[in-house]
Design brief:
The complex is a heterodimer.
Chain A: E1 2-8, H1 22-25, E2 34-38, H2 47-57, E3 64-67, H3 78-87, E4 90-92, E5 96-102, E6 105-112, E7 118-119, E8 122-123, H4 130-152, E9 157-162, H5 179-182, H6 185-192, E10 198-201, E11 210-212, E12 218-221, H7 224-227, E13 232-237, E14 245-247
Chain B: H1 13-26, E1 36-39, E2 44-50, H2 53-66, E3 72-78, E4 86-90
The chains are: A alpha/beta, B alpha+beta.
Chain lengths: 258, 91
């Protein structure tokens, strides 16, 4: 049983980017079971930009599942953004999940934007001024919704999709001082509260690709400036060799076992 | 923009660095959070990657307009968008 996932975040699409991803995206049909988008799909979160995202990432012949990022909230047009993406059959998750029937089994994706707050021992606390308490409560409520969804999904392979980072490992390369704005340990706790196979996030443009939660779940930062390609591909399955990375011939993406 | 008491010497570099960093995010024509501003002896250097050449040019134009007396060097790239050449297998 193998589930094949493509993922990228922080594509920041506007008119000037239209067509850049498309040649690579058109190779996805038949190669993967789903494309996951880890937030910051747009520059300013306008409906017009979301329509550009829909043109670039819609109609690919594979299910596309997304969470929004902080950029997608900038112009306070979230309902219009979600609506424009929905018209292109792009599913936007925020505290909920979806189960996809794939040839290799049922893929469950739980998604939430998440929020900052920092990591264990160096994080903000629900204490003091109302603004600080509101900040931390946003963090904990978001992580709680992720955890509840992960625990509720009935599937064979479970993936957590966020914009903010659930661990500090994948922030390596960012200044330590801004870690509390890039993620929070509560998201990691949520990931570890369920049998999650993989956690995907974006947001940290100067971060690094790989990490694990304290509970041992693999975490991948798929922010576009980090992966430096149109998307990354992950194969999740029981029989695969640990840590194996398969080469791809010049002709494009190939099945690693073919 | 903040006024400084010592107008002859101009604002300390650290404040200029902070203002440029905020401009890069808060100016709607830029809206980039992934650009790093580094102070060197001779200039402020902008590092990072953006999604199009147009955005890179716009960053340099907006910063030069706002800080005409500051020497700026750019090392901003455009992120590649080709299909991957490898698949990561996760048992």
């Amino acid at each position: 049983m193998v589930i094949r996932i493509a993922a990228v975040g922080d594509v920041h699409v506007d008119e000037d980017v239209l067509g850049r991803f498309r040649p690579a995206l058109e190779q996805l049909a038949g190669s993967v079971d789903a494309l996951l988008l880890a937030g910051d799909l747009t520059r300013h979160g306008t409906e017009a930009e979301a329509r550009c995202v829909a043109r670039e990432f819609g109609g690919l012949g594979v299910p596309v599942v997304a969470v929004l990022g902080n950029h997608d909230h900038q112009c306070d047009e979230v309902p219009q953004v979600v609506g424009a993406l929905a018209e292109a059959d792009i599913t936007v998750l925020e505290g909920d999940g979806v189960v996809l029937d794939c040839p290799g089994g049922r893929l469950g994706v739980a998604g939430v934007k998440g929020f900052g707050g920092g990591f264990a021992g160096r994080c903000a606390s629900d204490f003091g001024e109302p603004e600080m308490k509101a900040f931390v409560r946003t963090t904990t409520e978001s992580a709680d919704r992720l955890g509840e969804t992960l625990r509720a999904l009935d599937c064979d392979v479970l993936v957590a999709l966020t914009h903010y980072a659930p661990v500090p490992d994948t922030l390596a390369g960012e200044p330590l001082e801004i870690y509390p704005f890039l993620g929070c340990y509560q998201l990691g706790q949520a990931v570890d509260s369920a049998p999650t196979a993989l956690a995907l996030h974006g947001h940290a443009h100067h971060g690094s690709e790989r990490g694990t939660t304290p509970g041992g779940v693999r975490v991948r930062n798929v922010a576009h400036p980090v992966i430096k390609q149109a998307y990354s591909i992950f194969h999740l399955g029981d029989h695969l060799d640990q840590g194996e990375v398969s080469g791809v011939a010049a002709g494009g993406i190939q099945q690693p076992w073919s | 923009m903040t006024a400084y008491r010592d107008s002859v010497a101009g604002p300390p570099d650290e404040y200029v660095e902070a203002e440029i960093h905020r401009l890069l995010t808060e100016d709607p024509a830029v809206a980039e959070q992934g650009i790093t501003v580094v102070r060197t002896e001779r200039a402020l250097v902008l590092h990072g990657e953006v999604e199009s050449a147009h955005r890179r040019e716009e960053i340099l134009r907006r910063v030069a307009d706002r800080f005409p007396d500051v020497s700026i060097t750019s090392d901003i790239g455009v992120v590649r968008a080709q299909a991957p050449t490898e698949i990561e297998q996760l048992p």
